[in-house]
Amino acid sequence: MHEMEKQYGCQYCHNRFKNKNEAERHQNSLHLRKHSWSCAALCGYEAAFHPSLQRPSYAEICGYCGKEFSTPPQWDARIEHLTTEHKFGECNQSKKFYRADHFRQHLKHSHSGTSGKWTNVLENACMRDEMPPVSGSHGGMGGGCATSAISEEGSD
């Protein structure tokens, strides 16, 4: 009787649904994720900075807060900024976010990040393509860290 009530099954797990749309939404949001975001994608302090759009030859921007730093880089000052202001490398490096808004919340709450154009560059640097799952399996696999521009969902 209950199987007839929930006749649409997920191709990747044992969940069942009353209608086809619910089953498709479940698969797309949980099993067919195309991208993930993680702080582990940033390899080293350099990856947290990008060239200033206004003064690309003279300054670089912190991807967490938009603060401008002159070039050539004074790495002691930049590393001090990232470690004290943004707790660089202190979060759970194995944590993945499958929604950009959850990753933004993580940046705000765990790294004192502020929203702006600089945040988009950092998000892109932390984004990885996920491998499509094989039927009957769970999750995908992301790439390694980035030098310029990663297993739970949610925010902390």
Automatic annotation (TrEMBL):
The source's domain of life comes to: Eukaryota
The C2H2-type domain sits at: 8-36
Record key words, sorted? Metal-binding, Zinc, Zinc-finger
> Can the keyword Metal-binding be found in this entry's annotation?
yes
Tell me the PROSITE patterns matching this sequence: ZINC_FINGER_C2H2_1, ZINC_FINGER_C2H2_2
Q: Establish whether keyword Transmembrane helix is in the entry.
A: no
Q: Which residues are listed as membrane-spanning? A: none
Q: Where is this region: Disordered?
A: 134-156
The coiled-coil segments of this chain are: none
The name this protein carries in UniProt is C2H2-type domain-containing protein
